[in-house]
Amino acid sequence: MMSRDNRHVKTYQEVGCEFRPKDIVADIRKQYGVQISYDKAWRARELALGSIRGSPEESYNTLPSYCYVLEQKNPGTITDIVIDCDNQFKYFFMSIGASLVGFHTSIRLVVAIDGTFLKAKYLGTLFIVACKDGNNQIYPLAFGIGDSENDASWEWCLQKLHDALGHIDDLFVISD
Prior knowledge:
The protein has 176 residues and is α+β, with helices and mostly antiparallel strands. 40% of the residues lie in helices and 26% in strands.
């Protein structure tokens, strides 16, 4: 950034990977000599990120199209989206066809599944299903998203996993 007297001014100094509202307040004060509130900086940041990334609502609206294209371009891929009676997102499941084929042909019959909390604007749980290949490398098998980490979400995700894999004798499923 160039200042009015054409000297080079370095901006965004001492900022980590994330440009926080307090960094915006400090930069505006330093660059323009204007004091803005933390709240105003936070709203400006959210607006800027929204114009770059789009909103979560827009992303959820494109999810069915994404699933359709994923299934068309990756044979054997299984996706499922569940919405509640209020047309609100509830569950999502995805398993890529190549991962399923690889599991059935050459992966050990031990599957680990775990859930982790999603901490964005819309809360939920991300379920990750993985196993290990012959080289002890992690092999992703499926992903799911539930409205929370409760029995209903776990049951839905495990049922979708069973539907994707089919019945397999001697399959071990590990979870905490």
